[in-house]
């Protein structure tokens, strides 16, 4: 098990730095009443990389990484083993050797795969009071130091990454899972995590300019993903952590190839999914990408890569919220919609109607632990989100059977229900609130309700930088209404395929 590195004070004074179990400060800092931090920069192993500038005056940044035809497939080599390991042959998968990155990590718990399950122990995170003050104070340090800080401060991690969670109640498990994935494959994931961190500093907080986003690290990570083959359980964990992170990075920076990256990474771990899905500790990195892929396929009448397996009906997710039990139903809808589109056979119509009845009857399951684990605000957010997705699914089915201009009043009723759920949430908590991960329902509502207030769209994202994704969705909405005003009376989904390119996000 990797140990904490010494704090800045003990390192400077060359004193032995010791921690009591689950203590936030070392013994020496407690006795001297000193702040206990580890913000000094870390020396990377090996030689320093040679800086290379591209383009005139070094101004060119490359994101699309195109591998040559002779590129060999890379296999993830972990410190403990270089052989292919399968769940049936490896009941316990533990890092038996400390990597260069692990040794410098501030790990505070053990982590193992036991019977295919990721087992976690309690962690203690140092919480910083007054994050906005901390943020301004730390802006003078490097991105790498800020990146390292989020590994030791749960509060810092949440405020940096809050766009990926419905609330702070999901932060602890999310950070725990990311740290464990990183410790299994540090060299493989560090560039990706750091690239995403720089994108968040720009897009979420506007604490830097876009030219400071580490596009080169993102390109390197994309190249690794494209040439990577999954041969064992470790590889699968690394791939399912790397791919969706890169897809989200693309949404923040270019919003062009996000879904391709997402679906490629899910296809890489498809055969390993039954094993991965049995581990509750991996839920934070598995459910969200499946939810995203399912939302994409719902709009474009495609088939999701993976059908979510409900292990516990009370499971709630950082992105999907209470919609976890709805995911398998939406998958079945996507499959039936795709088959009906391709064949036109009546049997698929019956299947869609059966799915419709399941959606009408569906209600999210409230587990006994929900009120103890999450705040009132988080529960209200998940409840509103679930209602919006239920209405969005019914609206989708309605438009599968009814062309534009046919039964528009029913479509408007579903769209109005979606918007009403959002407004009810905002009114209950204040107009300054945001409800993330509801872009798909609001997009469908905007296609049915003309002149939906622009202010409504601003309630869907915490980003301070203009959202490229939401701009593209707004352009599609404008295109659809132009066509409707011109007398278009065909399939809404055919119209979406003929319109501007867009990336749907959940």
Notes on the structure:
It comes from Cladophialophora psammophila CBS 110553. Residues 76-100 have a biased composition (Low complexity). Keywords: DNA-binding, Nucleus, Transcription, Transcription regulation. This is Zn(2)-C6 fungal-type domain-containing protein. Residues 41-50 have a biased composition (Basic residues). α8 runs parallel beside α10. The protein has helices at 8-13, 27-32, 100-104, 131-138, 143-152, 154-161, 171-184, 186-203, 215-226, 233-253, 258-268, 273-276, 283-300, 327-343, 346-361, 370-373, 376-401, 408-429, 439-446, 454-457, 468-485, 492-498; strands at 74-75, 92-93, 111-114, 117-120, 228-229. The longest helix has 26 residues, at 376-401. It is built from 22 helices and five strands. 52% of the residues lie in helices and 3% in strands. A three-stranded antiparallel beta sheet has the order 2-3-4, with no helix packed on it. A two-stranded parallel sheet has the order 1-5. Mean pLDDT is 81; it is low at 49-133. A hairpin with a 2-residue loop joins β3 and β4. It has 506 residues and is mainly α. The two termini are 37 Å apart. The protein has three domains: 1-40, CD2-Gal4 (Irregular); 75-99 and 110-272, no CATH class; 334-498, no CATH class.
């Amino acid at each position: 098990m990797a140990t904490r590195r010494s704090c800045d004070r003990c390192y400077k004074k060359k004193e032995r730095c010791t921690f009591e179990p689950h203590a936030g400060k070392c013994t020496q800092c407690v006795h001297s009443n000193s702040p206990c931090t580890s913000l000094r920069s870390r020396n990377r192993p090996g030689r320093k990389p040679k800086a290379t500038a591209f383009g005139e005056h070094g101004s060119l940044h490359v994101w699309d990484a195109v591998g040559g035809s002779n590129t060999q497939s890379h296999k993830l080599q972990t410190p403990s083993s270089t052989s292919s390991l399968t769940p049936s042959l490896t009941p316990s998968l533990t890092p038996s050797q400390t990597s260069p990155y692990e040794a410098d990590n501030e790990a505070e718990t053990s982590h193992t795969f036991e019977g295919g399950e990721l087992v976690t122990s309690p962690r203690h995170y140092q919480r910083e009071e007054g994050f906005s003050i901390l943020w301004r104070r730390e802006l003078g340090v490097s991105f790498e130091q800020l990146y390292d800080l989020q590994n030791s401060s749960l509060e810092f991690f949440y405020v940096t990454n809050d766009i990926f969670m419905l609330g702070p109640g999901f932060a602890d498990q999310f950070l725990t899972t990311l740290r464990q994935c990183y410790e299994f494959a540090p060299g493989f994931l560090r560039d990706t995590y750091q690239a995403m961190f720089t994108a968040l500093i720009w897009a979420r907080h506007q604490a830097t300019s876009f030219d400071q986003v580490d596009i080169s690290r993102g390109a390197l990570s994309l190249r690794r993903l494209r040439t990577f083959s999954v041969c064992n359980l470790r590889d699968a964990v690394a791939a399912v952590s790397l791919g969706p992170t890169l897809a989200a990075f693309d949404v923040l920076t270019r919003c062009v190839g996000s879904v391709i990256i997402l679906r490629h990474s899910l296809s890489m771990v498809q055969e390993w999914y039954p094993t991965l899905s049995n581990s509750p500790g991996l839920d934070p990195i598995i459910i969200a990408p499946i939810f995203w892929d399912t939302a994409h396929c719902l709009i474009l009448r495609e088939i999701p890569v993976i059908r979510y397996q409900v292990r516990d009906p009370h499971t709630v997710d950082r992105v999907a919220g209470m919609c976890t039990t709805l995911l398998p139903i939406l998958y079945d809808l996507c499959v039936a919609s795709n088959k009906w589109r391709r064949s036109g056979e009546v049997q698929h119509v019956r299947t869609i109607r059966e799915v419709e009845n399941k959606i009408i009857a569906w209600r999210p399951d409230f587990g006994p632990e929900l009120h103890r684990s999450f705040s009132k605000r988080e529960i209200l957010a998940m409840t509103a989100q679930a209602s919006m997705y239920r209405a969005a699914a019914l609206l989708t089915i309605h438009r599968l059977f009814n062309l534009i201009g046919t039964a528009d009043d029913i479509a408007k009723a579903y769209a109005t229900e979606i918007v009403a759920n959002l407004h009810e949430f905002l009114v209950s908590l204040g107009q300054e609130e945001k409800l993330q991960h509801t872009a798909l329902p609001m997009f469908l509502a905007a296609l049915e309700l003309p002149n939906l207030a622009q202010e409504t769209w601003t309630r869907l994202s915490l980003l301070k930088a203009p959202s490229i994704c939401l701009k593209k969705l707004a352009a599609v909405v404008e295109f659809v209404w132009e066509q409707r005003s011109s007398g278009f009376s065909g399939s809404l989904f055919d119209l979406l395929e003929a319109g501007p390119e867009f990336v749907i996000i959940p």
